[in-house]
């Protein structure tokens, strides 16, 4: 079973965010709770943790401005 990764809503007023850095490589094995990327919004910077364990497949590049809810990858 795979888990889709989305741009999260970190604040009520947040509508978009930019992935500033992936902390893992595409195809890497990650553990639930492990930080996997950094995101920047107009109000905050945050590290986002993996919601599940498995192999990560990255679909978004750093520097892209993406709307909340945009799929950015998956963990299988």
Tell me what you see in this structure.
The protein has strands at residues 3-6, 16-22, 29-30, 35-40, 45-49, 54-58, 65-67, 71-75. With 76 residues, the chain is an all-beta fold. It has a single domain, classed as Beta Barrel (OB fold (Dihydrolipoamide Acetyltransferase, E2P)).
CATH architecture: Beta Barrel
Q: Which structural class is indicated by helix and strand composition?
A: mainly beta
Specify the helix fraction band: under 10%
Question: How many domain regions?
Answer: 1
How many H/I helical runs?
Answer: 0
Which stretches of 5+ consecutive residues score pLDDT under 50? none
Write the layout of secondary structure elements.
Layout: E1 3-6, E2 16-22, E3 29-30, E4 35-40, E5 45-49, E6 54-58, E7 65-67, E8 71-75
Antiparallel strand pairs: 1-8, 2-4, 2-7, 3-6, 4-5, 6-8
Concise account of the structure shown:
With 76 residues, this protein is mainly beta. It is built from no helices and eight strands.
Characteristic key phrases:
76 residues
């Amino acid at each position: 079973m795979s888990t889709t990764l989305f741009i999260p809503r970190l604040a009520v007023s947040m509508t978009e965010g930019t992935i500033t850095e992936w902390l893992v490589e595409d195809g890497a094995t990650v553990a639930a709770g492990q930080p996997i990327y950094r995101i920047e919004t107009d109000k905050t910077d945050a590290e986002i943790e993996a919601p599940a364990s498995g192999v990560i497949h990255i679909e978004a590049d750093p520097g892209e401005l993406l709307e909340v809810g945009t799929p950015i990858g998956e963990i299988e």
